[in-house]
């Protein structure tokens, strides 16, 4: 039905707004729909604030969050994502995942001044508190949402000073959730009505082969790498950064790609053109995905 991305500075009151929004939406939906609030603090994720202390831990946390989002997305669900979601590239990934299952996308921006966030953060205890250094770093890195880009639109801004969400805003959010525009999936990643019976096997085999080729060929200098999805097919070119891409990093990216592709196969959505589930088609999409992720 819809995916609602909550974004804002750390310690800006996002969790409180997410809970208020969940309570409102639960009263509006009928029995056939479900409102799910996915928080970093949920038992299934348990992402600590300390995960944002270094880039390696943060990447793992974002990967776990994205995997959970993909798993919970459904045409019969309103999914609220309570997390910093401060990187526009990550919000775009969420948008793409929602687009693949044809659910509406809504962005809620919780706006609070940095000084207020600092005060609220100091009131927190234990694992719920950001370190002062991490908090300041996240302030600097925050990328504000914009209604001018499709992955942040429609965009609703909530002020920290309001005790509750204004009713007019709640009604507008409900309108976007219930009747808003559904973005069509990209024609390069949409399945036909029936994927081949061996699509899953080809998906796993091809992505694993490409991953093995990357590990064998890289020397830490980066640049263009030539890969082959299967014998007899034209080679594919992948540009990697000037460093050694680790096996855990590749494995995590492979899981994300395979999870999205599996959902496309299962749902059997229809769009302009059809998906090529051959080794060549899977390999081309996987290489494009890897190049986008590794260059971030």
TrEMBL record:
Keyword Hydrolase: no
UniProt cross-references to Gene3D superfamilies, sorted A to Z: P-loop containing nucleotide triphosphate hydrolases
Origin superkingdom: Eukaryota
Keywords from the named record: ATP-binding, Nucleotide-binding
Entries under InterPro entries matching the protein: KTI12/PSTK (IPR013641), P-loop_NTPase (IPR027417)
Molecular-function GO terms, alphabetical: ATP binding
Keyword Nucleotide-binding: yes
Protein family according to the UniProt entry: Belongs to the KTI12 family.
Name of the molecule in the record: Chromatin associated protein KTI12
